Amino acid sequence: MNKNNLSQTKISVLDLAIVRDGGNAADTFKNSLDLAQHVEKWGYERFWLAEHHNMPGIASSATSILIGHIAAGTITLRVGSGGIMLPNHAPLIVAEQFGTLATLFPNRIDLGLGRAPGTDQFTAAALNRDAHAAQEFPANVEELQLYFSEGNKKGRVRAIPGEGLDIPIWILGSSTDSAYLAAAKGLPYAFASHFAPAQLLTALSIYRNNFQPSEQLKEPYVIACVNVIAADTDQEAARLATSFKRLFLGIITGNRQQLKEAVDPGEGFMDPMEEAALQQMIAYTFIGGPEKVKKELDYFLEKTKVDELMVASAIYDHQARLHSYEILGQLKI
């Protein structure tokens, strides 16, 4: 169980496969693999990729293919989805894809599932996602579990490969709906507090209070995802964080852009109202040198008592991003 401080808590990576300004998807995939290989050496638990579509700044649209790429280039690291947006896909297709991944990389694949489209309404329509797809999410999770079960050997529709494999299913969420579902099904729960912090504590309480033990999980298990930008000094971390802040500001204003180079924090790239809106969205963001980051993360872990911390780090310079994860890994020792 988590001891509610960083040194006793598993840490993992959420890689959004961000395309940097001036770069391309090929650069992104190369850097993602390099990051995965480094964090594997630094003792990280898992490396998840998230499904997004029609976003020039994010290259993880074919999520299962990218998971295979990362898994093939690592040895012990768990690799998975954070998550697959299940309403975009037939459950059978997901079962076959992850059954294939789990066959190629035994005991290393995680399947995190979300109910959002991971895109805009027009792209959702292009993905053949109907208006009621989100409402069908619980039934689709059950269908997926059926395909993975040994008991489906006599079923008329079977997932091959996939059937009978031990592929952990996680429920992802950014609101309380997912907390009730994860609790009822006895599944581990991952909360997207890196961009939706408002309902984190309520969702955790709902999940823990309503949890029903299952074959997969006997006790509640929670991951909270947060943003961390660490550097050797608080000042350098604040400079690096300008790339991240401008990226999220673009989401708020509807002016989505690729990740841009860091600038002087004093340049004033947003007005006070934008800054207030941004701070609400990124409340669980930890920026600073090693001492500051450790103190703030220890407080967060004591407050939330989550079992695992998943970290997203939108840093323009790849070496600086590696160093941020390296610092965090060292803080566990």
From TrEMBL:
InterPro entries: Bact_Lucif_Oxidored (IPR050766), CmoO-like (IPR019949), Luciferase-like_dom (IPR011251), Luciferase-like_sf (IPR036661)
GO annotations of cellular component type: cytosol
Pfam family, one: Bac_luciferase
Domain of life from the UniProt record: Bacteria
Domain Luciferase-like, residue spans: 15-307
Molecular function GO labels: oxidoreductase activity, acting on paired donors, with incorporation or reduction of molecular oxygen
TM spans (from-to): none
Signal peptide: none
Family recorded in the similarity comment: To bacterial alkanal monooxygenase alpha and beta chains.
Protein name: Luciferase-like monooxygenase
Organism classification: Bacteria, Pseudomonadati, Bacteroidota, Flavobacteriia, Flavobacteriales
